[in-house]
Each structure stands twice: as structure tokens, then as C-alpha cells.
Amino acid sequence: MPARPELIRPDDVAIAAAMSRALTVIALVILALGDGEHTVNLVAERTDDTFVRGQADLSVGTDPVRLSVLDEDDYTALRTLLVFALEGSTVRGAVLVATTAAEPYPRACGWTVRGGWLHPMDTADLQQAVTPCPGVAAVRREVYRAPALPQITDDSAH
């Protein structure tokens, strides 16, 4: 049986840059989703052939402005996974899907990680990803195209 490839730790400068981008991405995703109850899922395929997943439940409001995180540990794990997905040296690919509570069905949009940033996911691929398997009790989600997030470079923050 072949051994899994070993993960090589990225350098501190790359991690710091990815952390800065991750905080910006999270803020932009929250703004794009707007008011409501949201579940954000991130699935990443690592270079050692394993998959990792993070999920956080958020409540967002603008009148008054508020952001509530249901579980701080879940949010921290999701944010950490996003940092490594954006940095890219230990992750082959990653997808972030946001589901918003809505009637009659929850709404979902998604982004793929490419080049250290989030890009709107193809809606056909997203529909396939969120469609429940036959025989599995799950809520149907209405899929829509995720908004493009303006790419803010680390240099533009100065």
C-alpha cells in the first residue's frame, strides 16, 4: 500500500499573508450574504489525499449591525481551514458553500478557491454538490450564483 504524501508546513510569511486574505474573504462573504441565518461550509482536499471540513453557523444583521457566531470553536476551525486553503501549498482544492435560511427553501451559493482567492462556483456543479443522495432525508436547497468578491491584495491594505 503506498504511503500518503507528507504535508510540508508553509512558511510564516505565506501563512500571515493567507491569514490577512482569509479575514478579508470572510468579511466580504458576510457582506455578500447579507441579513439572515447562514451556515458556511468549507471542504478542502489536502495534498496528503485526505479531505477536511469546517462549518460555522452565523447570524448577520444590519439594523443594527451585528454578527453572531453560534460556536466560536467551529468558527475558528473554519477560519483556520480557510487560511490553509487560500495559502494553497497543503491543499489541492477547496470549496466554500453558504446556505441561508429562507422560505420555502434554504438558498445556497458557493465559491471555489483558486489562486489564493474565492471565485464563484458554477451553479450546475453547486446544484450537484447540494442535491441530497436518494433515500437520504435532507432539505432541498435553492441554488444561485455566488457574487464575485472584489479581490483585495495584501498591498492595497496599506
Concise description?
The chain has 158 residues and is an alpha+beta fold. It has 3 helices and 7 strands.
Structure notes:
The chain has 158 residues and is α+β, with helices and mostly antiparallel strands. 29% of the residues lie in helices and 33% in strands. It contains 3 helices and 7 strands. The protein has helices spanning 12-33, 72-87, 123-130, and strands at residues 36-46, 51-62, 65-69, 91-100, 107-114, 117-120, 142-143. Strands 1, 2, 3, 4, 5, 6 and 7 form a 7-stranded mixed sheet that branches. Helix 1 (12-33) packs across helix 2 (72-87). The model has no long low-confidence stretch (mean pLDDT 90).
**Integer average pLDDT:** 90
State the helicity in percent bands: 25-40%
- Based on secondary structure, the structural category is alpha+beta
What order do the SSEs take from the amino end to the carboxyl end, as H and E?
HEEEHEEEHE
Mind telling me the C-alpha Rg?
16 Å
**Helix segment tally:** 3
Largest sheet: 7 strands, mixed
Query: What's the number of extended β-strand segments?
Result: 7
Contiguous runs where pLDDT drops below 50 for at least 5 residues: none
Please state the overall shape, judged from the principal axes of the Cα atoms: globular
Fraction in beta strands:
25-35%
Distance between the amino and carboxyl termini: 50 Å
